[in-house]
Amino acid sequence: MSLNIRLEKLRFILEEMELAHYLAKNASDDENARVLSRHVIIRAEDLIKHARGLRKPLLKVGYKLVDFNNAKEIYASEFESYFSVTRHKLGAHIQDFDFVKRVELWNDVESIKVDYFANDALAIYKELEVLSIPELISYSKPQEINNPSFDDKLALFRKTTISRSGSELGTDPLALSRPNTTTVLNGTTLHIRAGQLNLLRRWIDYQLKLFIHLKGSKAVERILKGRILTDIVSFCDCLITKEVRAGSLQEMDGLDRLLIEAGEPVQSITNFLQVYDFENKLSAIRYIRNKFGAHLEIDDNVSLSVILSKLNDFPFDDAIKFYRIVESLFFKVCSETFFLNVHRAHGQYSHDIVSNNPSVIPYGLNYPADKKNLLIQSRYDCNEVYEKYYKKYKSCDLISKEEGRHYFWNAFVSATVTAEIRKKETLQGGGLRYKQIKKRTSHDFILQKLLSAPDIEVLEYIFPLLSSCSTGDPDALTQVILEFSKNSNRVVLTPAICDMVGELGSWKAQDAKEYLEKNVSCSNDSWTKLIAMLALFKMFIKSEGLDRINNRMQFESYESAIGWMNNTLTNEQKLTISIVFLSHFYSYLLVTYVEAFEEEVSNLKTKLKKILRDMLANEVFSQLESTLETLLDTYDYVGVVLMISDVLEEMSFRKCLLDLVCDEVIVTANHDQARRHLVGCYLRNNNMYEALKLARELANRNPDIVSHQITLTQILASIPKSKDEAKEAIQYIRRSYSNLNREEEITLLKVEDSL
Known about the structure:
It is a single chain. The protein is mainly alpha-helical. About 65% of the residues lie in helices and about 5% in strands. It is built from 33 helices and 5 strands. The strands form 2 sheets. It has a 3-stranded mixed sheet with strand order 2-1-3, with no helix packed on it. It has a two-stranded antiparallel ribbon with strand order 4-5. The chain starts with a helix and ends with a helix. The model is unreliable at about 370-375 (pLDDT under 50).
């Protein structure tokens, strides 16, 4: 029985090696060919061990094994020379290694060597076939190889790989081996470990995409499951230290221990390990990794069918969900650790850059990747090219979208000038000066797009494109917006036009300022008036803030520039505008200038508290005062609105405040407290889709915080079509978060009762 099992496993190893090498030769690029070739290398060591295990039982029954032993040991010697270290450092494990030697090891994984080990493995098997062993089944190629239908699937997958322009930022230790990659090198152990984690993320993401694309081929699914599960275990061991015997080959400090040694906080990891069933879930994956992924079970009492049955029965989707949760923990640690923030930028693209990496060695693909120009062509003045990059900007693919944005940023400052416009600028003290604004072919293209596009396209694509190019030539873009307003007469877009003028325009630009002041003074639409007021506020803060930062001696008064707009407002409107303005002081656009307006911010807060005190009963205000101070100190004006909405339920302007939050007119501070309050505002405004979307983001980003997971279940339970998902989420929390406190348990029970 044991001989049958050993021979069956040996044949299976050959099939996997040949099929894995076939996948590698047909990969989308050299990097991913090497990623897939790791399975050949891992199975090559399995072949040696299992072949050696055949020697005694075959000798025992009288077979002469001289040729078999010679072939096997020559193969083992060659493997030791070429790929043994690669298998340990870049395959079954991800272990620490010299930086240069690691790149050399990786580049040594190329088609000729891999082909040698795949083909010579078959030669060893042929030596057994010569012996006419009754239990031995003749070897035949996997059915996927040279199968036209399977080849078509591989070709389609290669085509789905999007060609990128620009240079990719890589923080992983093999970034230097990839073409057109800007490598961030840092030799400290912490950065090396974070880089290894990003490397594993790359591998897992590619293999998972290929797994989904080739679903249906059981043999391919097994190979990719083995690689993905093995890489997940390596990822976890790199992040959270695995306890092993001192001095063992697997001994390695995870990112958690390295952070502690560096004196950095690891509270997120500590919280996660306290509340999440990490070890048990990882142990289940590690078991499959040990029996199939990194090794094929050597015990000849365990049949291949038993091993494959365990792999087939293993909940692979749950393992991927577990991995995504641990990956989110890694992102959170990087965001909380200042010097690890660079690793969050891994995989992003920089345009107008091509990196010539000297360590790039081709693998030897059957279908080499197309050599395309990696730079965005700086060709302007052609509507066909403008249209091409406009379509890229409209794409759902974020990198293509950024290519389109980057192209237009350059076009708005570099395309051919078609006209020069002389514009008045108002100086402090009443003086005037004239500024020349250059109108270009790119501006003409965008203006025509604005005039011809439907309102929804203007709001969803064209205005956001102009906003994203605001650091180029904002004065020229402001003129495009004003000209569009003059020629289109689309009243429904007036608030959005005001918003764009406020973001792009200069306080000194007389026509932009007059346009907004006219809408503040004359508009009969309260929404337009509010947006115009906010636009004037933003224009003033940008211009005056820069002057104050540059220590200009004479300041323009905030009250004279902006305060006049409050003269005709009711108390409710004054409270609203105070919250709106204060929230924008801490927006990405204006936060740079907030220190220059310290006195004005303090005055606005005082006015806000006074108005609120006048609107509420003394007892109610006293109860809320400490909470209000906390919210103001954390710039959480969404939280202020949430608090007001809960105590002023009967007042009509409560709905107005919630609308302003949900429409992003009141800006959400950049921290999770404010985001959680934003979820509350969405819920009170019956905007269930946005509440669910944000709650899901918070839960995914904070796997160490149980309350975020429970909030998600509450929202899911309140949406009829999401009740099944709510039940699954509750079950997952109970299985995965083992230390729920009494309050969390009661909340979950209430959610269950509601279902």
